[in-house]
Structures are given as C-alpha cells and as structure tokens.
Design goal:
Helix 1 runs antiparallel to helix 2. By secondary structure, this protein is mostly helical. Helices cover 79% and strands 3% of the residues. It has a two-stranded antiparallel sheet with strand order 1-2. The protein contains 5 helices and 2 strands; from the N terminus they run E-H-H-H-H-H-E.
Length: 127
C-alpha cells in the first residue's frame, strides 16, 4: 500500500485554510454586531475571510499566474491574527492574545519559507 504524503498534506492544508477562512468570517460577523465602533475591523475580517476562501478553492488556477499564492494566504492569515491579538490586548483580556501572536509569527515564517522554497512539487511516497 502506497501512501502519498504530498497529496495527504495538500488535502490537509486545503481543509485547514477553509476552516481558517470560516473562523475569520465568523469573527467579522461577531465584530459587526458592534457596528458603530468596529465596522472597519468587521469589514477587514470579512474581506480577508472571503479572500482566503476564494484563494483556497481556486488555488491551482491562481498559482499558474502568481507563483506565491500560498505565501499570500499565509500573509492574510498573519494579518488577521495580529489584528485579533491587538484587539484582545486593547480589550484588556489576559493570556488569550498570546496564541494569536504565536500564530501570526508562525504564519509570517511560513510565508517567508514558502517564498524561498523551490516550486517543484514534492513526491514523497512511501510503501
């Protein structure tokens, strides 16, 4: 039985990006409840969530035109994570903002790594 880890990893990334897009959109909807105060943030979250979902679904066709599509996804996710962390710091919450800061560092590092990696697909199969 052959296991193609590249295909498995690609599917896992697809699901993870779609879940992330859903969470970002839900955060935008939650911020839209306080429309007078947080409407720019709600618009940012909704826009980034929709962009992440569209880029994830149409990833193959975008990557033919723009090689760094995956880096763009990671940059959008890092931006949203930093904004969420700063909102939690501003609201005075304790210890909730640190996972979002860690996620933003991780997404920024992954964006830098995916820009520098070769564009050839990995064919890691194991028997």
């Amino acid at each position: 039985m052959k296991i193609n880890f590249a295909s498995l990893w690609s599917r896992l990334q697809f699901v993870a990006h779609l879940v992330t897009a859903g969470v970002i959109i839900l955060e935008g909807v939650a911020r839209a409840e306080h429309i007078q105060r947080d409407w720019p943030i709600a618009a940012l979250f909704s826009t980034c969530g929709v962009l992440v979902a569209i880029i994830t679904i149409k990833h193959k066709s975008f990557e033919r035109r723009f090689r760094h599509t995956h880096s763009l996804l990671y940059c959008l996710e890092a931006l949203v994570s930093v904004v969420i962390a700063s909102l939690y710091i501003k609201e005075g919450k304790t210890a909730v903002q640190y996972p979002f800061l860690m996620a933003s560092y991780m997404f920024a590092g992954l964006a830098g790594y995916s820009i520098g990696r070769p564009s050839a697909p990995h064919d890691a199969t194991i028997e």
